[in-house]
Amino acid sequence: MLVLGVETSCDETSCAIVKDGRIILSNIIASQVKSHAPYGGVVPELASRLHIENCIPILDRTLEAADLTLSEIDLFSVTAGPGLVGSLLVGVELAKALSYVCQKPLIPIHHIAGHLYTPFLASELNHEDNGFDYPYLGLVVSGGHSSIILVKSPLVYEEIGRTLDDAAGEAFDKVAKLMGLGYPGGPMIDRLSEKGDPQFVDFPRPGSKSDNCDLSFSGLKTAVVRYAHNWKKDKESITETDMANVAASFQFAVIDTLLGKTRMALEKTGMERLAIVGGVACNRTLRREAFKMFSGIRIHIPPPVLCTDNAAMIAGLAPHYFDAGKTAPLTLNADVNLRLY
Ligand code: KG4
Ligand code: ZN
């Protein structure tokens, strides 16, 4: 089955074609990062306009890269939420038009369910079964979400923990902005931290004493703001090493918190498989520390191109809903929540 997926929930316009829920034939992503960078974050109005400009060229490139025509597509799928409403609307209307013109079904997909599906995607050149299977624990860490989810099947999810305030990526972005590092903050802090000492500042690990798996990052963010405020009076004397030390200390506090809560969730659920997904899963220290900490269990962290937003994850998951006769999962476990026609 050939599925064409569309993803426009935030600031990436992406279309992809995935065969049989597994093999990526094409996955084209147009990032808007450069356009939003001068504003220090995603500007929703600008994001919608850029999706309008980009969606048809990206669709064309996706078909071309897979050497297919629209008439060969069996099923369409689209991210229906959560996300920026103006951005989502562009992708949903594109997918509806494609489905209507081609007279093929359309499956709306929950963005987080898409991220959680990435361990099952493979490339055309390398599609040996990696052995990853259900059930598993998923740590979802992106710009908009931080949660720990027990994935029982492609259709059944149980939330074990969630952020009580900021998402992990949001904390990276806000702290980077405070330090004058630019947008998006995650990759900047990742790079700068390589040269820093993670023990330099003992930032708090929010929620580390509670016995639930919920996450919280706003206290940590405030601690960095307070530290920066009291930093050397003579700002000119702040060296690159000072910056790297603070970045590394903040990053380590986030990673320590995320992995501590993940360990607790693994113990509570008895899971022996873990997937770490979403944009923050690109973080090199997080990847290294996760493999070190959970060396006894099966762990999957997708390649960076599948950690950040992409349509392959949206196309890959769709056949599972189609086969189950379910067409509109707007909340993770709901059967029908959205009428597309
Ligand atoms: O999954 P994603 O592309 O979009 C959302 O669904 O939100 O995640 C984007 C987030 C941004 O906050 C970005 O700063 C963060 O992922 N990110 C990183 C890294 N690369 C991207 N955070 C930490 N380290 C990285 N290397
Ligand atoms: Zn995402």
Secondary structure layout:
Layout: E1 2-7, E2 12-19, E3 23-31, H1 33-36, H2 44-66, E4 75-81, H3 85-102, E5 106-110, H4 111-117, E6 122-123, E7 136-141, E8 146-153, E9 156-162, H5 168-178, H6 185-193, H7 218-229, H8 240-269, E10 273-277, H9 284-293, E11 298-300, H10 304-307, H11 312-323
Helix pairs in contact: 2-3, 4-11, 5-6, 5-7, 5-8, 6-8, 8-9
This protein binds 5'-O-[(R)-(carboxyoxy)(hydroxy)phosphoryl]adenosine and zinc ion.
Zinc ion binds at residues 111, 115, 142, 278, 309.
Q: What general form does the structure show?
A: globular
Structural class: alpha/beta
Number of helices: 11
Widest β-sheet, arrangement of strands: 5-4-1-2-3-6
Number of strands: 11
Describe the sheet with the most strands.
Answer: 6 strands, mixed
Fraction of residues in helices?
Answer: 40-55%
Considering the protein shown, what is the CATH homologous superfamily of the largest domain? ATPase, nucleotide binding domain
Strand content: 15-25%
CATH class category name of the largest domain: Alpha Beta
Radius of gyration equals 20 Å
| Average of per-residue pLDDT values | 91
Give a structural overview.
- The chain is globular.
- It has eleven helices and eleven strands.
- It has 341 residues and is an alpha/beta fold.
- The strands form two sheets. Strands 5-4-1-2-3-6 form a six-stranded mixed sheet, with helices on both faces.
- The chain folds into two domains: 2-121 and 306-323, ATPase, nucleotide binding domain (Nucleotidyltransferase, domain 5), CATH 3.30.420.40; 136-301, ATPase, nucleotide binding domain (Nucleotidyltransferase, domain 5), CATH 3.30.420.
- Helix 3 links the parallel strand 4 (75-81) and strand 5.
- It has helices spanning 33-36, 44-66, 85-102, 111-117, 168-178, 185-193, 218-229, 240-269, 284-293, 304-307, 312-323, and strands spanning 2-7, 12-19, 23-31, 75-81, 106-110, 122-123, 136-141, 146-153, 156-162, 273-277, 298-300.
- 41% of the residues lie in helices and 19% in strands.
- The longest helix is centred in the C-terminal third of the chain and has 30 residues, at 240-269.
- Helix 4 (111-117) crosses helix 11 and helix 6 (185-193) crosses helix 8.
- 5'-O-[(R)-(carboxyoxy)(hydroxy)phosphoryl]adenosine binds at residues 10, 142-144, 169, 172-173, 184-187, 190, 278-280, 282-283, 308-309.
